[in-house]
Amino acid sequence: SQGYSLNVTDIEDTIPCDNCKKRIPKASYTNHELFCKRNNITCEKCGRVISISQKDQHMTEMHTTVKCVCGKEVEKISLAYHKAKECSHRIVRCKFCQLHKTLKEMREHVVYCAARTEVCNSCNKIIMLKDVKKHQDSNCKYPVNAKTIQSETLPQSTLSNVLKLLSLIHI
């Protein structure tokens, strides 16, 4: 296709090409239209304007179906998007522990991880990680049945040891 450089002020002196959709100067439009329709086509699959001589190459490079590692078949043109946004083998981060796993593995991991517990610094209640935000937003009233660690009955060193043990056994 032919390249044209247009200034914003020249836009009134242009016409959109029916074939390639580019804005073409009125003075060159007839020649451009003849050249463009003879040499370019719009891909029926993706809507891109391509040179007729490169149609086979375009179809091979963009629209051949390939199999992703997850097993899904997608066109080459869509593979990068699929891997980034849809693929069950894409890497995601756990919102509770920041561990990276594939989405497929994360579904199982997050069930375990969300059930781990920590002690609230404000009220000393044992809270599941999945409930920490609700607990904080409720000013330590959620969940109602949360167990409290009585810090005044334990020396500080014992309390630290208990907290370490609790984090290890994930009550």
| End-to-end C-alpha gap | 68 Å
SSE string: EEHEEHEEHEEHEEHH
The average pLDDT value, as a whole number, equals 86
- The secondary structure category is alpha+beta
Strand content: 15-25%
Number of distinct beta strands: 10
- How can the largest sheet be summarized? 2 strands, antiparallel
* Helicity, as a percent range: 25-40%
Rg, nearest Å: 31 Å
Chain oligomer state: single chain
List the strand order in the largest sheet: 1-2
Give the overall shape, derived from the CA principal axes. elongated
Write structural notes for this entry:
There is one protein chain. This protein is α+β, with helices and mostly antiparallel strands. Helix content is 37%, strand content 18%. It contains 6 helices and 10 strands, in the order E-E-H-E-E-H-E-E-H-E-E-H-E-E-H-H. The protein has helices spanning 29-39, 55-63, 76-86, 103-114, 132-137, 156-169, and strands spanning 14-16, 23-25, 40-42, 49-51, 65-67, 73-75, 91-93, 100-102, 117-119, 126-128. A two-stranded antiparallel sheet has the order 1-2. A two-stranded antiparallel ribbon has the order 3-4. A two-stranded antiparallel ribbon has the order 5-6. A hairpin with a 6-residue loop joins strand 7 (91-93) and strand 8 (100-102). It starts with 13 loop residues before the first strand and ends with a helix.
